[in-house]
Amino acid sequence: MSVTGRRLPARERLLWAAGEVFYQEGLRATGVDRVVEHAGVTRATFYRQFPSKELLLVAYVQALDTAVREYAGPVPEGADDAAAWLLRLTERIAAEVSAPGFRGCPFINAAAEFPSADHPVRVAVAAHRTWLEDEVALALERSGQENTREGARRWLAQRDGAMVGAYLGSAEAAAATLVAAVSDLVR
After folding, report:
1. Model confidence at 6, in pLDDT bands (50, 70, 90)?
2. What gap in Å lies between CA 2 and CA 12, rounded to an integer?
3. Are 163 and 97 spatial neighbours (Cβ–Cβ below 8 Å)?
4. Measured between alpha carbons, how far is 131 from 90 in angstroms, rounded to an integer?
5. Phi and psi (nearest 5°) for 185?
6. Average pLDDT over every residue of 148-162
7. Residue 36 — very low, low, confident or very high, per pLDDT cuts 50/70/90?
């Protein structure tokens, strides 16, 4: 685990390892020892960075959120640019659900493992979803759409459906349906 030949700091290695094993094996099912082993650090190093597994779980969800925010970027001002932003974001999701090894939405998967809405993992998932819905509503508003909050909820439902549908059925069909639905939404 290095960036341009430089070994990543322990915290980054742990988050990278958590991202790999939590997504593949589940959040509750994966123990600290598995993350420690995958990261190539000691248990003492783990506990210096994350005093509990729960704190690592929340950091994992927040790191996922940060990654989505970075690839989404800010919603542009102009109508055509805002519509293009939303289509680009949707196409990125369509590519994600079609990628080898796709096991469903990591946010939905995390939320499914923690049924209590006030659990810190669920709170982190909810914060991501609120941000995502708000950004989509802004993109729809800037692209000249009406009922932007309803449109954003529809977009989120389409996205969620594509994530689940791609994992349980045909990834290609789920991706194509998502892109077609959002293309219709921004027309």
Report:
1. low
2. 10
3. yes
4. 15
5. -65, -40
6. 96
7. very high
Compute, in degrees rounded to 10, the torsion defined by CA atoms 154, 159, 164, 170: 110
Inter-CA distances, 62 with 55, 123, 130, Å: 10, 10, 13
> What's the full length of the chain, in residues?
187
Tell me what pLDDT residue 4 has: 44
Alpha-carbon radius of gyration of the chain = 18
pTM: 0.91
Distance, CA of 121 to CA of 65 (rounded, Å) = 12
CB-CB contact of 61 with 69 (8 Å): no
Q: State pLDDT tens for residues 79-101.
A: 999 999 999 999 999 999 999 99
Place of tokens 């669920």: 122
Given a cut of 60, is residue 62 above it in pLDDT? yes
Q: Cα–Cα distance between 10 and 108 in angstroms, integer? A: 27
pLDDT in tens, 38-54: 999 999 999 999 999 99
The domains of the chain, with CATH numbers, are 1-51 (1.10.10.60), 54-186 (1.10.357.10)
Please tell me the distance from the alpha carbon of residue 38 to that of residue 57, in angstroms, as a whole number. 15
- Token pair listed for 81: 């640019």
Alpha-carbon span 187 to 184, nearest angstrom: 5
Contact 162, 173 (CB under 8 A): no
